[in-house]
Amino acid sequence: MGIPTVQVVPVPLGTGENASLAAWAARLRREKIRNRRVLLVQTPQLILDSFDREIALRRGYYNFPPTGLQYLYESLRGMGLEVTILNLNHELLKRVCDDPDFAASRWLEILGEALDRYAPSVVGVSCMFDTGIAALLAILGELRRRDEAVVVAGGLIPTYEWQSLLDRDLAHFTVAGEGEERFPFLLGLLFDGVWGEAMGGIRFCPDGEIMESRGVTRAAAFDRDLVASYAEVRIEEHHLYGSLNPFARMAGLASTPFAAIQFQRGCRARCTFCAVPGLMGKGVRSRALATVLAEMAFLIEERGIRHFEWLDDDLLFHKDAF
Predict the structure, then answer these.
(1) Through-space distance between the first and last CA atoms of the chain, rounded to whole angstroms
(2) What is residue 4's predicted lDDT score, i.e. its pLDDT?
(3) So what's the pLDDT on residue 202?
(4) What is the pLDDT of residue 322?
(5) Residue 159 CA to chain centroid, in angstroms?
């Protein structure tokens, strides 16, 4: 039996704008908010049912840095929150490689350990790839089973599968598209009852009725310095437990410390088969070149990085900036 179609009910504008969102956030604040801790979780980016320890030991699985969560981390600075990043993909590969007695099927134990250690009031879960869907569902299911924190799902998969996640009661909220402005707005409501500028694209389902916030839906400003976020990311050891891409391996860079870097976000094309426009909106935005170079210098000098992967979908759109 398929998931029934559910009509999204927009939260009304005008007097009491987003009143249902505020009421739901206030209810969750009373029930779930025990401290000011936020845990950001990146899902495993591999197919767990076919996991092979020998492939992991040969560093054959991808081990991408949690760059998207690092942007979220930076967007939350100044809110008085204690934010921690848990890259489950990296931690799973590290545990399997370092502990011969650890079975990959026990990977949810790593999440449980983090939840017990940090006791967060809010857990944000990001999933960007189809290979992570099964892990996403397992993570959300475990979080809702524990029922200890407010659960927010974001990234590419929740952007498109929000209705399924909410209908199954796997998250209290889903955040569509880029989260650098929507997520802080939502957390302001949850922790402090603060509104700020109302943001659209936040979906929720109080009492079985799916609703969506009303407000600004602009593309997020992402010209942020990610250096501080690397306090939560052991980027210098990612290459020890996985690879960045097959081309780096072919070029003999499998043992080279790597990092991801982004100069521009978005793409000039409007290809119907691509998820980028739906996730990031129209147009191409750039970070300041000085910010990018400072981040690269930090990673080279402080973390020993020797290989960078450009994350840009349209790297040369603003080619005059180089």
Answers:
(1) 54
(2) 39
(3) 96
(4) 62
(5) 11
Under DSSP, is residue 284 helix (H, G, I), strand (E, B) or coil? strand
Q: DSSP state, 4?
A: P
Letter for the amino acid at 14?
A: G
Three-state secondary structure call for residue 285: strand
CA 105 from chain centre, in angstroms, equals: 23
Alpha helix segments (H runs only) across the chain = 19-32, 53-57, 67-75, 88-98, 108-118, 133-146, 156-167, 182-192, 246-250, 276-280, 289-303
Q: Given this model, what pLDDT does residue 11 score?
A: 44
pLDDT number for residue 321: 66
What angle is formed at CA 153 by the lines to CA 149 and CA 154, rounded to 5 degrees? Answer: 140
Alpha-carbon span 129 to 231, nearest angstrom? 25
Give the separation between CA 165 and CA 212, rounded to whole angstroms: 14
- Check residue 169 and give left, alpha or beta (phi > 0: left; psi -120 to 50: alpha): left
Nearest to 279 by CA among 166, 154, 195, 191: 154
What CA–CA distance (Å, rounded) separates 278 from 160?
Answer: 9
Instruction: Report DSSP letters for 23-84, one per residue.
Output: HHHHHHHHHH-SSSEEEEEEPP-S-GGG--HHHHHTT-SB----HHHHHHHHHTTTS--EEE
pLDDT beneath 70, residues of the chain: 1-17, 321-322
pTM for the whole thing?
0.91
- Round to whole Å and give the CA distance between 174 and 183: 10
Give the model's pLDDT for residue 317.
83
